[in-house]
Amino acid sequence: MTSTRHIRGIDDLGKDGILEIMELSNHFLEVSNRRIPKVPALRGKTVAWLFYEDSTRTRLSFETAAKRLSADTMNFSISSSSVKKGESLRDTIETISAMGVDAVVVRHKSVGVPWLLPKWTDASIINAGDGAHEHPTQSLLDCYTITQQLGSVAGKRIVIVGDIKHSRVARSNIKAFTMLGASVALAAPPTLLPPSMTNWPVDVIMDLDVALKEADVLYLLRMQLERQEESLVPSLREYTNFYGLTTERSRKLQKSSIIMHPGPMNRGVEISGDVPELPNTVITNQVENGVVVRMAVLYHLLGSGLAPIGLTHEDGTDD
Ligand code: NCD
Q1: Which atom of ligand 1 has the smallest separation from the CA of 263?
Q2: Which residue, among 57, 19, 18, has the nearest Cα to 288 in the 3D structure?
Q3: pLDDT of residue 229
Q4: Are 103 and 5 in contact (CB under 8 A)?
C-alpha cells in the first residue's frame, strides 16, 4: 500500500495510489450491493465535514460512505456556525480537532486551503474542492467509472468540453487521466481556457464536432457562471450552439463512446434535456460510484490496511 495521510490533490496519490483506490473500490462495490450495505471497518473513527461552498452529491456521497463504514460523523453547517460570527478557519479547525476527529473533508472557495489545514490539526485532510484548483475524489470516481465502462483509462482519448478555466474537476482529471495513460483533449472557446497552459499535457481542439469523432470519453463540464467575473461567452445561446451536446450532435460519437458529467448539470446549456437518458450516458453510474470510491478513500486513509477483515459483519458473515 502506498502511504499518504492526506488526499489534497492527485499528486498526493500518484498513479499507484489511484490504482490502489480503484482496487479497493471493487471490494466496496461488493459491500454496497449487499442486502445490508454496512461494515464495521471504521467503527470508532470520526469524520467531519467542513463545507464552505455548496454541494449536493459530494457531501451526500461522503456521508453515505462514512455511514456504510460505521464511522461517526461530525456535521458542520457553515450557515449556522460561528463562522457566521467571524471565526477564522484556523480557530474552526482547531475547535473541531480538539473534539477528536480522524479525517476532515473540506470544500472551500480559496485555492490551497487543504494544504494549510495540517498546520492546525493532526487529522487526515480530504479535499472536496478548493476554488478552481483540485477535486481529487471526483477524479477517482471518474477513473473508476471509465475503467468499469471501457476496461481501462490507459490508451483512451478523453475530450473535456467547456468551462475549463474555472474547473477544479478538469484540473484534477487532466492529471489523473494522463497519469493512467490516457490522452486528453480540451474543447472550448479560448475565453474558457486558462490564460496559461504551459506544461498541461493536453491538445486543444476548438471545434467540438471534430473532437467528437475521436473521443472514447466525452466529458462535459458545467458552465460555472458563479465563478465568472466577466462575460466570457457572447451569449449562453451561442455557447450552446457551438459546445452544447444535443442528441443529434452525439450521433457523431463512436458507438462505444461514453458521455460523462460531474454534475450539477445545466440542462439546456452544456447538455440538452434528453442526453442524460441516452444509453451511452453514464452520469448516474458516476453518482453511484461516488459512494463506493469515497468508501475506498476513507478506508485507505483511516482503515487498518487489512481490507478483507474490516469488510465482514460483526458476526463474521459478509452478506
Ligand atoms: C463540481 C464541483 O463542485 O467542483 N461538482 C461536483 O463536485 N460534482 C463541478 C461543478 O460545480 O460544476
Answers
A1: 8
A2: 57
A3: 63
A4: no
CB atoms within 10 A of CB 140: 27
Least confident among 186-190, 194-198, 277-281: 194-198
Q: How far apart are CA 214 and CA 223, in angstroms?
A: 23
Tell me: pLDDT of 308 over 50. no
The CA–CA distances, whole Å, from 155 to 5, 204, 215, 262 equal 30, 18, 11, 22
Domains 10-134+289-304 and 136-285 share a fold: yes
CATH of 136-285, one of 3.30.499.10, 3.40.640.10, 3.40.50.1370, 3.30.1180.10: 3.40.50.1370
Site to probe by mutation for ligand 1, drawn from 169, 192, 284 as the one with most ligand atoms within 8 Å of Cβ, is 169
Mention the CATH class of domain 10-134+289-304: alpha beta
- Assessment of whether the complete model's pTM goes beyond 0.90: yes
| Those residues with Cβ within 8 angstroms of residue 192's Cβ, 6 or more apart along the chain or in another chain | 162, 163, 164, 165, 232, 233
pLDDT in tens, 213-258: 999 999 999 988 777 666 777 788 899 999 999 999 999 999 999 9
How far is the C-alpha of 310 from the C-alpha of 300, rounded, in Å?
12
- Residues in CB range of 200: below 8 A, 6 or more apart: 174
Instruction: State the pLDDT at residue 309.
Output: 41
Residue to probe by mutation, ligand 1, list 54, 138, 220, 286, most atoms within 8 Å of CB = 138
- Residue 40 in contact with ligand 1 by CB distance below 6 A: no
CA distance 181 to 276: 27
Cβ(139) to ligand 1 under 6 A?
A: no
Domain map (residue ranges) of the chain: 10-134+289-304, 136-285
The Å distance, Cα 264 to ligand 1 centre, comes to 6
Task: Read off the pLDDT of residues 56-95 as tens digits, 9 standing for 90 and up.
Answer: 899 999 999 999 999 999 987 777 677 767 778 999 999 9
